[in-house]
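In response to reviewer comment 3 from the previous cycle, which asked for concrete evidence that the modeling workflow produces usable outputs, we include below a single protein chain processed end to end. The sequence was submitted unchanged, and the resulting structure tokens are shown without manual editing.
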Amino acid sequence: MPTPSPHRGPRLRRLADRLAAQYRTPFEPQYDPARRSWTLRWYDGPAPDSVRSVLRRAGSDATGVLVRRDLTTRALALAALRETRAGAMRRWVGSWGQRYHLAQLLADRPDPDRPADPREAAMLDALLLAATPGDRRSAVPDESKAFELVARHGVAWLLPSDRLAGPGEDGALALSPLEYLTAHYATGVHRTAWETALVTMPLRAAVTAAQADPAPTVDAARAALALLPALRAELTGELDRTQARLHLALLPQG
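The workflow returned the following structure tokens.
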């Protein structure tokens, strides 16, 4: 394979510009005189295999060019949130083992810094803010701190527990009625499941907890009342199934 020449810079920069327009991600060709090789570098954006495929189709302009994608703190913090919710986040608090695990996880994934929905985006922003030391207007998030926060505290703390969604509201941080009751009343394994994975407690248990509260908040009462139709349907379904099974027992055998 021909050795990439340092004089190919202009052609590779034009290629980098085309890639930047295609993927909406800045690309930078860099020449290593010691190794006499070119490397095309970028942050987050497309998966390396996708860029390699483009380079193969580019012909001689890209012969021998290496690719290197680096991951931003934003991408790694988002992966930490998702891994925590999936129950797979490593608990090596403050360790580089976490970064290695997350980087390996993202190795072939495109756009690792892009949240899936507004809620995930808001939670990610809250995590990065909490992991930013000192003067937050100019400082950058501490990657290890972000890992430590989710490893120690899970993810539910990134949502305001007192923010009940209004009727028809689809806010990023507002809690649904069942989420609101879970945030206020869950204990034991249900508390752990909520804090680490945003898993809500069973419907009946949530409404029962609000009913048993001697002084529920207005929003807790609203949340429980909003859930009563779903609970009524659940109980009716259970009663209907029980009735059907018992009727079968009354039928003549054989």
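The longest helix spans residues 218-250. We consider this sufficient to address the reviewer's concern, and the full set will be provided in the supplementary archive.
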